[in-house]
Write a structure and sequence with these properties.
The structure is a homodimer. Chain A is an alpha+beta fold. Chain A has 17 helices and 16 strands. Chain A folds into four domains: about 80 residues, Uridine Diphospho-n-acetylenolpyruvylglucosamine Reductase, domain 2 (2-Layer Sandwich); about 120 residues, Uridine Diphospho-n-acetylenolpyruvylglucosamine Reductase, domain 3 (2-Layer Sandwich); about 110 residues, Alpha-Beta Plaits (2-Layer Sandwich); about 100 residues, Alpha-Beta Plaits, CATH 3.30.70.2740. At the A-B interface, helix 9 and helix 17 of A face helix 9 and helix 17 of B. Chains A, B: Keywords: FAD, Flavoprotein, Oxidoreductase.
Chain lengths: ~450, ~450
């Protein structure tokens, strides 16, 4: 059967080395018994989908394979990697939009925008290898959400191949369009279960002309929340990033990065302001603001190098924590007012169960979103996952108590599908299943992901 | 049967004067044979819905009854007016959100935000009587979309009564939440066909500290589009409004408003910049910008009174055009690059058919959205609608040729449902009907609206 499909494709649509596509980013999931294809045109995607639909073959779409929840792992069927759909289609300056193939690497979209003297704001750790289609399918977040929103907010229009091979194309830059149910938002965040995104029209912005970055040491999360409220009211949309880092996380990252942090404190906040007009006094305003409000244990980056160092400390947390071994990670969000209570109460209960546990807490406090990663230094890496259920039960119970969500910006994938009923009602899941059944009655697209059985 | 329902409700939930709820804003549609109810609690809404579901009685939800497409008109069944659900529930300063009942009048939400030293940006002509629930159900647009988005972009969470009486409540301020299909966006813009919105959590912003308003005369729409591109790249998110007005529309409004316009030209643009930081030089920057780029036929408001006058000229266009008699109105949007061609080509074809036609063109050029209203001065008002199909055929054909949409910010309602297939594919409409069938299998909520039969 695969022979027949291979025969339909050009040789360059069948990669010889399939290893990079089979193992997931966290090395927890491996694709098995599947044919890896890399269609080089939208028509080829449609051809493959039609072929599979006629023969009941499942299709698992895959972008840059940088997901953290096992969302692009195939058991059998076709693993359809989008990397060859990588054209920047065009930039429209009047409408401030860029239209791209889904397989464009995020960094290349940022670069194409910059070349047109515009700014595409989505920014996250894997931007050098993740792809726009995957960013859309997972509703990616990252570092600039506070100012520009998540990927969902940046999508003007989509081009999608449906499970029957039909192409749905809405790539025109319509800034207003209220014509019955907004289906675009179903595909965004659907993790490839409803359609394969092949292209998108995205919003562009004027490039920032001034940037100011501060690192602030504080003694509690309550104090960070207070600072957030003050800075948001003072600087409004200029506030681009407001990142929380625990002292433990900072120390790990500092060691890994060979950078000595200038500030010591129980908790840390990285603040970045940007302005689309050149503004010489923004740094002074920020310094005055911090001083006046009593946040004196802080430094402002005085050069681009100093700014890079502050960001390196923040961005290397993920890499540096690998030294602690395997971890049970949580990508959670909650109302900002609830974060301090959550960290205190959840941490206390975890330590009660696991007195030697290391907890790495950092994340996008400005969005109420936390990376909450737990390590068991005295448990062998291979055995850590035996504790996953117990730890998740505790962390998610506290998250839900604070009216939070179990998936902020990494999605549901394979890892969390059995948790979906904790945040979505039976009526909602029934509706989701009806939507899935309407678009994909054969259940061929990204099987065993997202929705519980 | 209605006797039984009346008995379930308190006396103050049954208005004695029902006339204001029965005739629509444009006086084109009248509700008939229906019971008007005004539930005073979410529980009461659920009770009514459950009563109706058990007896196959249709329910037409209604907010401020300011819609322009006959979306809240009932033929039989229950007309459920939300006006009594009018509490501001609470303001959350850390998360920058406000939670309100759906029946709150838009102006009251703006005022509650201002009282908390925050800004709620949705602003439109009927803000003194339209309601938040209706704004959400229709994805309202208005004057500040360029900077803050449409209503869809302002909704953090919704509380909705489903057609079976079940309550779906997601009012927590989650700024990031990627847990399978985003159903919130189905209810936004669904015009009451999927659920009755009873409450919402909305985004707040820092109040603008500086405002600068300019009126610019130009000789062509091309020139306006060029100006838009320049001003967007220069002032970025500070650009709050960019309104296009034809000379004919301006003259009508000037006469109606008793204000003498300072600028004469074929076309006019109203530009408003706002800044969340006090900035003394914003007016100078705007004046320099206009001068440097050759847009010298312009005035900057030098006082709040002058600013009000400029806005009055813009906002009174709708009221002033009533002097021309009944009209066939179009609420369309298209890529901004296409607006000039549309106005030229569509106007030419209309004038060929109707040499005496008056065309009032104005709208939110910054969003590619136009109010395109046609008048036949030599046809009696009552007979104008006989030409509706012919005129719509021409206008919508040109709109679609420019990859535009037939409904930008007023919705589909009764008026445009037969046009929906021109902008949504059979696969999309089939999916919408499946969604409707799943949530409302008895087809009880807002029947004969939105989706074609």
């Amino acid at each position: 059967m695969y022979t027949e499909l291979r025969a339909l494709l050009s040789p360059n649509e069948l990669p010889s080395d399939t290893a990079p596509f089979l193992l997931d980013q966290r090395k927890r999931y491996t694709s098995t018994d599947c044919l890896v294809v890399q269609p080089n045109s939208v028509q080829s995607v449609q051809k493959i989908v039609r072929f599979c639909a006629a023969r009941d073959i499942t299709i698992t779409p895959q972008g840059g394979n940088t997901g953290l929840v096992g969302g692009s792992v195939a058991q059998g069927g076709v693993l359809l990697n989008l990397s060859k759909l990588n054209r920047i289609r065009h930039v429209n300056l009047a409408d401030n939009t860029i239209t791209v193939d889904a397989g464009c690497i995020l960094h290349n979209v940022q670069a194409a925008a910059a070349e047109a003297n515009r700014f595409f704001p989505l920014s996250l750790a894997s931007e050098g290898s993740c792809q726009i289609g995957g960013n859309i399918a997972c509703n990616a977040g990252g570092l600039n959400v506070l100012r520009y929103g998540t990927m969902r907010d940046l999508v003007v229009g989509l081009e999608v191949v449906l499970p029957n091979g039909e192409l749905l194309s809405h790539l025109n830059p319509l800034h207003k369009n209220t014509t019955a149910y907004e289906l675009k938002h179903l595909f965004i965040g659907s993790e490839g279960t409803l359609g394969i995104i092949t292209g998108a029209t995205l919003k562009l912005f004027a490039p920032p002309q001034s940037t100011e970055t501060a690192w602030v040491g504080i003694n509690s999360i309550q104090s960070a929340v207070q600072l957030l409220s003050l800075v948001k009211n003072q600087f409004a949309e200029r506030l681009c990033s407001f990142e929380l880092v625990s002292q433990f996380a900072l120390n790990l990252s500092a060691q890994h990065s060979h950078i000595v942090p200038s500030v010591q404190a129980a908790w840390h906040v990285l603040i970045e302001l940007t302005d689309s007009l050149a503004r010489d006094d923004l740094g002074d305003l920020l310094a005055d603001f911090l001083y006046t409000n009593g946040y004196e244990n802080s430094v402002l980056a005085q050069s681009e190098q100093e700014r890079q160092d502050l960001w390196t400390l923040r961005e290397n947390i993920s890499a540096s924590q690998r030294a602690l071994g395997a971890s049970i990670k949580h990508d959670i969000a909650m109302p900002i007012v609830a974060v301090a209570d959550f960290v205190e109460q959840c941490g206390a209960e975890l330590i009660q169960h696991y007195p030697d546990m290391d907890i790495v807490v950092f994340g996008h406090l400005g969005d109420g979103s936390l990376h909450y990663n737990t390590f068991l230094p005295n448990v062998l890496s291979n055995d850590v996952y035996q504790h996953e259920d117990t730890i998740n039960q505790i962390v998610y119970r506290h998250t839900l108590q604070q009216n939070g969500t179990i998936a902020a910006e990494h999605g549901i994938g394979s890892l969390k599908r059995h948790w979906l009923p904790s945040v979505r009602s039976p009526a909602e899941i029934a509706l989701m299943k009806a939507i899935k059944a309407q678009l994909d009655p054969q259940q061929l697209f990204n099987p065993h992901k997202l929705l519980p059985d």
